[in-house]
């Protein structure tokens, strides 16, 4: 079908150091034999490593402002993706995945992951009952989810789908993040809370298992057969601004 898959990844400040492993392992495992376009959002374009990309795969660097306060950028991530979809990605890709950069691929991530709206069950919550989900519980936030609602607790580090559906997701989450900011309220897990709220009322058409967003801090369990993508263990003192 000659599809193109966009991948957005933020590498602001010291997080540029994760790009090499992220990109090298993506070349081995992520959407092999598809057209892939990486969109790297960074304040340090000169520090983006040059990784050999296979045929049909491209990388664009998009400059974003740096900040000592990550919260300032974090709150704008949905807006930045929304704008990039409008300006560039909608013309260049069919599907999109928005991923955390502090991660590596370990095994095949292929066409089985495609769908109109795609989310992953958070690796720390797939066995938890609903009352333990860390949704935003204050009605004053636009990310609010009442105790008797919610299907799954979704990971904020991976979401995707058709470019059109993800565009709507980023637009809605952006507006809700901005409304919360105007009301001086920050959801418990920021974007992850807003993503969970969005996906409660806009059900994903495809739900991926925690194989697609494992956490290296968690020992592998029997239910998980193949770890495909995982968050690496990071030294917070070393990589985070203040
Ligand atoms: C995040 C938290 C505190 C301070 C800084 C950051 C940070 C995140 C940053 O300085 N630069 C950056 O590019 N990020 C992006 O946000 C990365 O793509 C990162 O993977 C993503 C989410 O932040 P993480 O991975 O630190 O959050 P957790 O909850 O996955 O640990
Ligand atoms: Mn992460």
Provide a short characterization of the protein structure.
The protein is an alpha/beta fold and 242 residues long. It has six helices and ten strands. It has helices spanning 19-29, 70-74, 77-92, 163-182, 190-201, 236-239, and strands at residues 4-10, 35-42, 57-63, 95-99, 103-105, 117-121, 154-162, 206-208, 214-215, 229-231.
Mean pLDDT: 96
Series of secondary-structure elements, N-terminal to C-terminal: EHEEHHEEEEHHEEEH
Structural class computed from helices and strand pairing: alpha/beta
How many helical stretches?
6
Morphology: globular
How many β strands by DSSP? 10
Beta strand %: 15-25%
Poorly predicted residue ranges: none
> Which small-molecule species are bound to the chains here?
5-phenyluridine 5'-(trihydrogen diphosphate), manganese (II) ion
Helix content percent band: 25-40%
Distance N terminus to C terminus?
Answer: 47 Å
- Rg, rounded, reads 17 Å
What's the story with the biggest beta sheet? 7 strands, mixed
- What is the spatial order of strands in the main beta sheet? 3-2-1-4-7-6-8
Binding site for Mn(2+): 100, 102
Binding site for an alpha-L-fucosyl-(1->2)-beta-D-galactosyl derivative: 122, 134, 192, 215
Keywords: Glycosyltransferase, Manganese, Metal-binding, Transferase
GO molecular function, one term: hexosyltransferase activity
């Amino acid at each position: 079908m000659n599809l193109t898959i966009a991948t957005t990844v933020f590498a602001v400040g010291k997080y540029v150091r994760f790009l090499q492993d992220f990109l090298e392992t993506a070349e081995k495992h992520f959407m092999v034999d598809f057209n892939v376009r990486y969109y790297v959002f960074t304040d340090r374009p000169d520090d983006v490593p040059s990784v050999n990309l296979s045929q049909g795969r491209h990388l664009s660097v998009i400059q974003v402002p740096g900040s000592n306060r990550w919260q300032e950028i974090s709150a704008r991530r949905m807006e930045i993706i929304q704008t990039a979809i409008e300006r560039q990605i909608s013309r260049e890709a069919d599907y999109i995945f928005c991923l955390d950069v502090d991660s590596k691929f370990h095994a095949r991530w292929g066409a089985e992951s495609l769908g109109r709206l795609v989310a992953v069950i958070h690796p720390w919550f797939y066995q938890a009952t609903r009352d333990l989900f860390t949704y935003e519980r204050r009605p004053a936030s636009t990310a609010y989810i009442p105790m008797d609602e919610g299907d799954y607790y979704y990971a904020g580090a991976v979401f995707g789908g058709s470019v059109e559906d993800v565009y709507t997701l980023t637009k809605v989450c952006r507006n809700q993040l901005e409304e919360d900011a105007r009301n001086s309220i920050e959801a418990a897990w920021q974007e992850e809370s807003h993503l969970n709220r969005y996906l409660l009322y806009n059900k994903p058409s495809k739900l991926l298992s925690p194989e697609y967003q494992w956490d290296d801090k968690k020992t592998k369990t029997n239910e998980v057969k193949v770890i495909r993508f995982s968050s690496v263990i990071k030294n917070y003192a070393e990589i985070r601004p203040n």
